[in-house]
Amino acid sequence: MTDKNELLASVSESSAESEYFSPMPKGYQKGKTKYVVVMGTVMSGLGKGIFSSCLGKLMQDKGLKVAPIKLEGYLNIDSGTLNPFRHGEVFVLDDGMECDMDLGTYERMLEKDLSQDNFCTSGQIYREVLEKERHGDYLGRDVQMIPHVTGEVKLRLRTLAMKSNADIIFVEIGGTVGDLENAFYIEAMRELAYEEGPHSCCFVALTYILEPRILGEQKSKAAQLGIKQLMQSGIQPDIIACRARNVVNEKARQKISVYSNVPIGRVVSLADSASIYQIPAMLRECGMDFEVLKLLHIEDRIDLRKERVEWAKWCDFTDKIGKEKHEIIIGITGKYTSVRDSYASIINALEHSGIILGCKVKIKWIDTSIITGKNVAEHLKDVDGIIVPGGFGVRGTEGKIACIKHVRLNNIPFLGICLGFQMAVIEYARNICGLKKANSTEIEPDCSEPVINILPEQKKIEGLGGNMRLGGQDIKLKPDTTAFKLFGNNPSIRMRFRHRYEVDPRYVEKLEKAGLIFSGKAPNYPIMQILELSEHPYFIATQAHPCLTSRPLHPHPMFTGLVAAAM
Ligand code: GLN
After folding, report:
1. 66-109 pLDDT per residue, tens
2. Residue 391: CB within 6 Å of ligand 1?
3. Is 67 helix (H, G, I), strand (E, B) or coil?
4. Helix pair angle (288-296, 48-61), 10° resolution
5. Residue 465 has what pLDDT?
6. How far is residue 182's CA from residue 340's CA, in Å, rounded to a whole number?
7. Which residue is closest in CA terms to ligand 1's atom 7?
8. How far apart are CA 77 and CA 499, in angstroms?
9. CA 393, CA 85: separation in Å to the nearest integer?
10. Dihedral of the alpha carbons of 288, 105, 236, 27, in degrees to the nearest 10
11. Which residue, 473, 541, 555, 567, could crosslink 353 as a Cys pair with Cβ 3.0–4.6 Å?
């Protein structure tokens, strides 16, 4: 994670005699980097990541350098082994880090690629501490939550500060105040503020204002109690953002202000918004950006001219929201159809393309476990295009293959992603190449025509953590193909991957001879990355996850292509 010997200059200063233990990266200057810490009270799921990324965007627009970090309470080393049905999609960074979907929100809002430095779990922190203990780094001391575990958290943040050279680090603490899992993070933030000194940290408490239907009025008690709990941890919030269904009224805000010692001007209402891309404007309207600058004493670091340019660009984009002249329905086939968070990046990517093209994209969720060759036409009769997204395991795969056959034969626009790409290969092998038994060894381990097979390098790996082909990879595009044109005649592009299986190279020639075009391949290996068909309005699939790198102002071409074809 860090160059330990290089960075851990002052661990050795912590002798058994001293109570001051706070490892510092070498050369760290207090006061240079400021910290905005975002915590949640009352309940999780308030959109801490959205809030934090929107505020980060406003700061970045002002010419400040920002770096986000998410501190997760769970013990997993990364999010790779988490079930998207429970936790939302697993987001993959360019360096291969499998992380929480909030990192996707940060990448989209800040328009930048993040890395493993921006994602931290309790498991990572404990692992570091235990490794140091075995290495004898704690010099005979009993290793404790305070100061050693909290010290490790502060070290992570300060290391990020140095590596990123950021003016502001946005620290988002997962879960809610009062959870056992994240208590040491909150304590570490209290210590950080004490050590860094006044005007170094800005604490934001996100809270929720209840509005029970039978009462018909807003109630702030739960919010007050949550904030009180934060104050009991030794943290005085500087800003309280009140999430609610409707605009939070003056009375509720006054109550919270009085109970929390936070001036009313910094107790702000954040009502639900139709699009998260409108939240930066909401934060600007209540003056949140300048409040933060004032609290951190960095008004002199900003560049207002840059801000004007960036804000104009952003408003050009957001002005189009809700004014779309067209409307289409895209069907998404998938197993996790009851939890939309499992497909957050796909939903975002469709939104980006739709806004740019002036088209409202409605989504129809299609549960493929009930789809067969007989009923597929009925299920797909009202869609203008479909996406077959990524996934794992057997359930619903035959239904996906039936959908792909239907859209191929009926000229319905199609985008296949990862597992969707593999299903498209199987469909083509079975129905065009005559390989009736074609399948993936993930679905049928002993299958006699394994057109999709495990990657050779994956065969050697044991266990299920962090062992897929992960992260950004270069793709060589074949000239004069749809893919080549979509990417502006660029011969080489980059996308992010997360898979164990691939097209078995032994079948490539046969598939190509039968008309399947592999328009994107890995530069040095026979790994097929993009496929397409020529006699079809839009039939394209990729082993990668293009949705991960779609950004509001730069929608991903494979999605823009789908929406345009569907229109
Ligand atoms: N299950 C497939 C594989 O491991 C596809 C993975 C995915 O869609 N992310 O290759």
Report:
1. 999 999 999 999 998 888 877 889 999 999 999 999 999 999 99
2. yes
3. strand
4. 80
5. 61
6. 26
7. 390
8. 19
9. 14
10. -100
11. 555
Q: What is the pLDDT of residue 82?
A: 87
What interhelical angle do 344-357 and 102-110 show, nearest 10?
30
Contacts of 502 (CB under 8 A, 6+ apart): 452, 453, 455, 469, 527, 528, 543
Buried b or exposed e, range 509-546, using 16+ CB within 10 angstroms: eebeeeebbbbbbbeeeebbbbbbbeebebbbbbbbbb
The 3-state secondary structure of 260-296 reads: HCCCHHHEEEEECCCCHHHHHHHHHHCCHHHHHHHHH
Which atom number of ligand 1 is nearest to the Cα of residue 418?
8
Give 354 Cα–ligand 1 centroid separation in angstroms. Answer: 27
For atom 1 of ligand 1, the residue with the nearest CA is: 392
Question: What are residue 356's phi and psi, to 5 degrees?
Answer: -65, -35
| Interval 192-224: pLDDT, tens | 999 999 999 999 999 999 999 999 899 999 999
Binding site membership of 56 for ligand 1 (Cβ less than 6 Å): no
Q: Whose alpha carbon is nearest atom 5 of ligand 1?
A: 419
Query: What phi-psi label fits residue 322: left (phi over 0), alpha (psi between -120 and 50 degrees) or beta?
Result: left
For ligand 1, pick from 82, 343, 392, 502 the residue to mutate: most ligand atoms within 8 Å of CB: 392
Whole-angstrom distance, CA of residue 187 vs CA of residue 146: 8
Give residue 140's pLDDT. Answer: 82
Name the residue with tokens 């806004």.
355
517-521 and 469-477: which strand pairing? Answer: antiparallel
Model pLDDT, residue 462: 57
Please report, in angstroms and rounded to a whole number, the separation of the first and last CA atoms in the chain: 46
Q: What is the pLDDT of residue 14?
A: 45
Please compute Rg for the chain using Cα positions: 25
* Residue type for position 447: C
Contact (Cβ atoms closer than 8 angstroms) between residue 510 and residue 521: no
Which atom of ligand 1 lies at the shortest distance from residue 417's CA?
A: 8
The angle formed by the CA atoms of residues 51, 53 and 59, to the nearest 5 degrees, is 105
Q: What is the pTM of this model?
A: 0.93
pLDDT at site 22: 85
For residue 48, report the distance from its CA to the centre of ligand 1, in Å.
30
Sign of CA dihedral 160, 164, 167, 173: negative
Rounded Cα distance, 492 and 484, in Å: 9
Q: Is 498's C-beta closer than 6 angstroms to any atom of ligand 1?
A: yes
414-417 sheet: strands from edge to edge: 359-366, 326-333, 385-388, 414-417, 539-542, 528-532, 517-521, 469-477, 492-499
Q: Which residues of the chain have pLDDT under 70?
A: 1-18, 335-339, 457-466
Residues 6+ apart with CB under 8 A from 317: 277, 355, 356, 552, 553
Instruction: Give CA–CA dist 254/226, Å, rounded.
Output: 16
Within 13 Å of residue 197, how many CA atoms lie on the same side as its CB?
6
Regarding the beta carbon of 388 and ligand 1, being less than 6 Å apart is answered no
All domains of the chain in start order, with CATH: 32-315 (3.40.50.300), 326-566 (3.40.50.880)
What is the structure's pLDDT at 5? 44
